[in-house]
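I'd like us to work through together how a protein chain folds, taking it slowly. We need material for that, and I hope you will provide a protein of your own picking. Go ahead whenever you are ready, and we will take it from there:
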Amino acid sequence: MGKKSQPQAPDPAQTIAAQSAANKDAVRESAKANAVDQYSPWGSTTYQKNAEGMPTSQTISLSDQGQRIYNGQQNIAEGLTQKAGELAGRIPTGPMDVSNLPARVTAVGSGPQMGGVSAAGADPSSLGLTTGVNVPSLQMAVASRSGELQRDINSRTGEVSNLGMQDYGAATKATQDATFGKAQSLLKPGQDLERSRLEQSLSDRGIPLDSAAGRAELTRMAQSQSEANNRSAYDAVAAGSAEQSRLFGLDATRTQINNSAAGQRFGQDLNAGQFRNDATDRAFGQDLSSGTFANNAAGQLFGMNMQNAALNNSARGQAFDQAIGSQGFNNNTAQQGFQNQLTGANFQNDQRSAALQEALALRNQDFNEASALLQGAPVMGTPSFMNTPTYSMQPVDAAGIYQQDYANRVQQSQARQANGNAAMSGLFGLGKAAMMFSDRRLKTDVQRVGTGWRGLPLYLFRYLAGGTHHVGVMAQDVFAVAPEAVHAIGRYLAVDYRALSQMEPA
């Protein structure tokens, strides 16, 4: 099979010229399609075109009645505009005179003079207040009995056993090795037999061990065997861990029994010391109760003194409140006078604002009337016509067509070369399998996947009896070019792949 050259790439200048011509044609056709004359009761819209049918101008004509209405509205608008101009000449342009408006009040009196009653900084004795009472003596402490307490007991730490970290590595490893060795002795013979059977099966089907299909089958078998080996290794590790846990449990049980006895003896010593300290604590509590009673009596005396002082200060507070009330009445009267002045000032300022608004309205009257005349002028709009469908002709993608054609030819060339190479390799591999049934009547799910030796089509198929997909030729196709490689076995045809692979190419 000779090697074919790659297809020639398209000429860029030719591609650009073809695309430019296609764009210009699309623009001309779109302009022609959109230049549609329109006629309605209000008038018409027509297009003037050149010899090639291209629109060059547009004319809008009104009906007789529409033209009369339009002329009348233009006359009205012209008269209103003239009147607005007369009013605009009367609009004042100088500053506004506000000298005759009421005066603005910006302030009232400084406010009433407020009186007050102040006790800040005064001498407490001048107010007659009681500022202190006698404090009786208190008992601040009781006798300490700390010397009578038992502060420690005999330590039993020497009797406690510490299990620590024991080395169970040797026993664990021995258990793991024994478990893994036993599993391997059971798995290895079966795995070797499985590989031997797979290699024989691949050979029977004409699939070389170093082919892609052969390597895929061997890889799947190797992965399955590796998973089985990993599971046996995991089981061995689990068995070693279980043995380590069992040995650790035995040591922990012995240590727990010894430490429990030491703890019981320590508890007895602790109870004896606690009893002695409880007796000491009771004696200290009695001393504390006696001191508390004396302090409570002193507190009662202090409370009575505080009540007498509070009674005196309350009477002084009532007198001060009465003075505050009297001064507050005077301040309220002064505040009311100030509010009256403020209300009068606000009323005068409101009158000034109203007068200013009235003056502004009179000043702007001519301007507002002129604006209203200009806004009220009628406007004659262009008559409405039905919307004409707008067409936009898309240019032919000449550049894309050139490029896609070149890509298709390159892809077809590469596919022919790849299929030829694959067919050559596949047929030589099938030649090792000698005679194989290849009758089309024995196959299903047939799909052509390429072209092989001597131009024979290659197919992907499955046999009607079941199984995986295969790649090969049809006996009927081989008989047409190499009948000597086809043999009848019973009712069906078979192909001698060895003989087929030894034939010279056409």
Remarks:
- Residues 423-433 have pLDDT under 50 and may be disordered.
